[in-house]
Amino acid sequence: MNIDAAINIHDLRELARRRLPRVIYEYLEGAAEDEVTLRRNRSSLDEVEFIPRIVAGHKKADLGVTLFGESLAFPAVVGPTGMNGIFHRHADLVLARAAEQAGAAFALATASNESIETVGAATRGVKWFQLYPWGDRKVWRRLLDRAAAAGFTCLVLTVDTPVPGNRERDRRNRFAHDVTISPRTVLDGLLHPGWLWNVWLKGVPRFENLLEFVHPAADIHEIAAFTRKHRHPDLSWDDVAAIRAMWKGPFLIKGVLSVQDARQALNMGADGIVISNHGGRQLDGAVSTIQSIEPIADAVGKRLTILADGGFRRGADIVKALSLGANAVVLGRAPLYGVAAAGAAGAARALQILEEETARTMILLGCGSVKTLSPDYVSAPYQQRR
């Protein structure tokens, strides 16, 4: 299938599956344990029904939003995902540029395969930085200072990974931030020559942002060992407050699923939260993100900017999240399918598809602006009735 013939995210997903070796595709696709939360993110979205307004008289839909003083033409953030370089060489740069082109924001992960400085210099779009609190407070401060100097305007602190999730697909494939070479993986790579040439034969991507905390010549195995050794299962709200004090710009906490934690985030000085269950990759059985949005928005939505991720594959999914109270969404696997399928063209196509679907859904719903979406436009089994 030609990339221009891909008419939805599912088409891009299939192209990615064909192009990637199995071990790499399963890292992208998989989740924790029985993958209940992964499926629930999707099934809960499917349970939300639209209540359209007819004869609304809107020729087009205004998808623009303002987040922390910065204007976006599309209410989405290309989310902070790690190890993107195993899907396509320089994937982080590709995604950042695709986000800029689409008028979305881009969030760079601590575990990116391009450095903070490289991505900062490569795009003038809205750029955020995501921090995994690995290492000690000196490591955190150093990463935040680098991000601020490189033009990243917002910090996203991920707090839902105190220990690695039990991702059984990766365990079976002996994949843990690095690939164990076996006859099977060698054969699988040879059967995918496009990926082999683009990624593997040019050197295994490293976590470039972490090199200075290991040593400049560290390989992926040494850096992966650093990330495993320096996690913080004892991360506390005092640590969150310390990170808040280190960062002078807008500050979001990612991994919130309860009203209580949303209120605590507000009390700790957060400017926003990302309602997230890590795409089902951490705690299996966690509540779906879409059903968490409205109660949290009712509790703190007037004082916190609310974003949400979790299974968005259609523009309709984005509209559902915004209707229930999110200010914007965070996209994880959807743009990754695009970049894994066809690099820059695939990443751009993924965002184009979602933007077109979002605008079409808005017109069919009878709503001319995402700013005027409300729970009145949807019905869901878990919706709070007023």
TrEMBL record:
InterPro entries hit by this protein: Aldolase_TIM (IPR013785), Alpha-hydoxy_acid_DH_FMN (IPR012133), FMN-dep_DH (IPR000262), FMN_HAD (IPR037396), FMN_hydac_DH_AS (IPR008259)
Catalytic residues identified in the record: 278 (proton acceptor)
GO process annotations (BP): aerobic respiration
Entry cofactors: FMN
GO cellular component: plasma membrane
Keyword list, A-Z: Flavoprotein, FMN, Oxidoreductase
Keyword Transmembrane: no
Binding site for glyoxylate: 27, 132, 167, 278, 281
Domain FMN hydroxy acid dehydrogenase: 1-383
Residues that bind FMN: 80-82, 130, 158, 254, 276, 309-313, 332-333
Gene Ontology MF term list: FMN binding; L-lactate dehydrogenase (NAD+) activity
Oxidoreductase recorded as keyword: yes
Pfam families associated with the record: FMN_dh
Family statement: Belongs to the FMN-dependent alpha-hydroxy acid dehydrogenase family.
Name of this protein: (S)-mandelate dehydrogenase
Native species: Pollutimonas bauzanensis
Taxon lineage: Bacteria, Pseudomonadati, Pseudomonadota, Betaproteobacteria, Burkholderiales
